[in-house]
Amino acid sequence: MSWLQLRLAIQPEQADPLEDILLGMGAVSVTFMDAEDQPIFEPDLGTTPLWTNTHLLALFEATVNPDTLIAQMGALWQGALPQLEIEEIADEDWERSWMDNFKPMRFGDRLWIVPSWHEAPEPAAVNLLLDPGLAFGTGTHPTTALCLEWLDGTCLQNKQVIDFGCGSGILAIASLLLGARHARGTDIDPQAIEASRDNARRNQLADELFSLYLPDAMPREPADVLIANILAGPLVSLAPQLATLVKPGGRIALSGILAEQAEDIIAAYQTRFDLDPLAERDGWIRVSGTRRTVTG
């Protein structure tokens, strides 16, 4: 199987808006590399390693028309597009870049995310074995890290959890390994559903512990905990629906939000939730809170 790779020569300040646009256009991954052709990587936690001359690499399914892709980008990006190239790459080349650069990472006090091809650095810890496949969510992005740290610090024992926009399944699987009784995951991408199921089985979690659904098929029963690492726009529009999926007294955590979008998220959720102080990492934030018994 082959993929269509879009390579853009960008400045550091263009990284976040272009990443959001490309993910919204259906990119299955967005990564950065030095224009000097050093190896592809995603940023380590707590750092912003973008160079003066950076290449952004966006991976699309091979069925995407290149001319349509460029036209869509031109319509969404204000101003002249950065210099770009489009090429077809083999599946194994994409996978090799992940295997070379995805390393074990610790989140909070107990949780490690460990690539399936690595040994666990602390065998006695809570080790989540992950093969990201083509679904977003490895822990390297600040939004995923914010969510994993929140889960590590939340009491999940015997709780029911919803992972809304589950991607690779990393957040739901972490919840189960940290003591949750059951997790429900949903995603608009069938490939994400498949990756989530594969990763759950890799962690020896029985299928009945982690139920996976496309959005229209997901049961509407509220859970004790809901976590959603998507984008700010959908989080605002989905606020009434997500609130109904959290039990009174239950907990919610939201990420995929740029710092300048915080006010929109707070406005959408503060009538239904008592919100915690914001958590921030590298310009991204997490909004969390407790569902009110009576909304105001």
Can you describe this structure?
The chain has helices spanning 15-24, 66-76, 91-101, 142-152, 170-177, 190-202, 232-237, 239-244, 262-269; strands spanning 2-10, 29-34, 54-61, 84-90, 105-107, 111-115, 126-130, 160-164, 182-186, 210-213, 223-229, 246-258, 273-275, 279-281, 284-291. It has 296 residues and is an alpha/beta fold. It has 2 domains: 2-99, Alpha-Beta Plaits (2-Layer Sandwich), CATH 3.30.70; 102-291, 3-Layer(aba) Sandwich (Rossmann fold). The strands form 3 sheets. Strands 8, 9, 10, 11, 12, 13, 14 and 15 form an 8-stranded mixed beta sheet that branches. A 4-stranded antiparallel beta sheet has the order 2-3-1-4. Strand 14 and strand 15 (284-291) form a beta hairpin. The longest helix is centred in the middle third of the chain and has 13 residues, at 190-202. The protein is globular and about 50 Å long. Mean pLDDT is 85; it is low at 36-51. Pfam families: PrmA. One of its GO terms (cellular component) is cytosol. GO terms for molecular function: protein-lysine N-methyltransferase activity. Its EC number is 2.1.1.-.
